Amino acid sequence: QVQLQQSGPGLVKPSQTLSLTCAISGDSVSSNIAAWNWIRQSPSRGLEWLGRTYSRSKWYNDYATSVRSRITISPDTSKNQLSLQLNSVTPEDTAVYYCAREVIMTQAFDIWGQGTMVTVSS
Amino acid sequence: QSVLTQPPSASGTPGQRVTISCSGSSSNIGNNYVSWFQQFPGTAPKLLIYTNTQRPSGVPDRFSGSKSGSSASLAISGLRSEDEADYYCATWDDSLSGPVFGGGTKLTVL
Predict the structure, then answer these.
(1) Which terminus of chain B, N or C, has less C-beta within 10 A?
(2) Closest CA to A108 of B80, B35, B102
(3) Are A72 and A89 in contact (CB under 8 A)?
(4) Separation between Cα atoms, residue B17 and residue B62, nearest integer Å
């Protein structure tokens, strides 16, 4: 079955870069019927979609307006994983971060990673 | 403030049927598929309903979804204590060009 395994630091200093990785098993980051998303959840902002990457003969990225100037989502086909980089973080970026598979035809997030609690603090 | 509006709480007794609403607009629910998620504390959301009414394999048929215009609902029949969780709706928003979520409904089984 498809599984997503997240990794990355749980503490990031303000103004630095948050970096997380999501390793995919049972599917391919290059799948042409899926997209690979990052979503975060905090008490103040609820569930918030950050962006996605997907392959349709070439790679595409979509990002939420709220983080577009600070975010990069990248696929790594050699390791079958995707990564998230969020620059210039502030305490407002403190949240649980999830990667999730989206099956394009259904617009549904059907597989989620286990979540990574990231705290932005000095 | 979430784009999709859900009641913050709902409750029912074992065996009852409860419904949770999700209100949006023509740019989101009105023109796109709705999905529903169940989340227990400390765990990732789990997909319950997709494309408005479909259940993934393994989800009991006690859970059902519906959509009418710019609103959607999740119904849980034969309520059980293990259904006590947070429930979220989600859909694509054409104006925002991305997925949006409801604020969540905390279901209590009395």
Answers:
(1) N
(2) B35
(3) no
(4) 9
- pLDDT(A110) > 90: yes
Q: How far is B56 from chain A (nearest CA, A)?
A: 8
Count of residues making up chain A: 122
- CA A20-A106-A3 angle, to 5 degrees, is 40
Encoding tokens for residue A71?
A: 């975010």
Q: Which of A46, A107, A113 sits opposite B33 (nearest CB)?
A: A107
Structure tokens at A47: 């569930």
pLDDT at B1: 80
What band does A46 get if pLDDT is binned at 50, 70 and 90? very high
Q: What is the pLDDT of residues B44-82, one digit of tens each?
A: 999 999 999 999 999 999 999 999 999 999 999 999 999
For residue A51, what is the nearest residue in chain B, using CA coordinates?
A: B98
Task: Record the tokens describing residue B11, joined without a space.
Answer: 């409750």
Neighbours of A65 (CB within 10 A): 9
Yes or no: say if B75 and B18 are a contact pair by the CB < 8 Å rule.
Answer: yes
> Which run of H or E residues covers position B27?
none
How does DSSP classify residue B54?
B
Distance in angstroms (rounded) separating the CA atoms of residues B30 and B53 = 15
